[in-house]
Amino acid sequence: MENLLGLLRINVLRGINLAKRDARSSDPYVIVMMGNQKLKTRVVKKNVNPEWNDELTLSIADPNLPIKLQVYDSDTFTPDDKMGDAEFDIKRFFEVVRMRLQNIPSGTVITKVKPNCENCLAEESPITWENHQVIQQMFLRLRNVECGKIELQLQWIDIPGSRGV
């Protein structure tokens, strides 16, 4: 607990135009990994545009570690098929959290992270102040697959007793 900075809630909102890995569709789920932490969404059956709205929470001790996503097609009798992967970092998000913002109108865009060759962003990713919280909305383009994006929303959670930001 003494090394913990806080928690990162990742809301895995939806997949967009994911690859078909079964006859006509896929049964996708997402695995989120950071360091030795590994979390998984539920499986959405027969859907290449799944809506998960699953909230996954990572403990953050080192905000410089990348967060990795892997998307799979759930299969019953054979190993699950890969449907792409993506990676992002929270460095800029964490910098905004450390600003300890207050008294700012809800909906204010603090900064934007632009897509580049070092991230998997499909478009600009705004970091905003919403209802007294720092929020980042992002669309990640999946790699190592013919198509697909994942929409996420990040939210920081302070923990009483942690070393904090």
TrEMBL record:
Any one GO molecular function term: lipid binding
C2 domain residues: 1-103
UniProt xrefs under Pfam families: C2 (PF00168)
Source domain of life: Eukaryota
Subcellular location: Cell membrane; Nucleus
Keywords noted in UniProt: Abscisic acid signaling pathway, Calcium, Cell membrane, GTPase activation, Lipid-binding, Membrane, Metal-binding, Nucleus
InterPro entries: C2_dom, C2_domain_sf, CAR1-11
Record-stated family: Belongs to the plant CAR protein family.
Protein name: Calcium-dependent lipid-binding (CaLB domain) family protein
Signal peptide bounds: none
Source species of the chain: Forsythia ovata
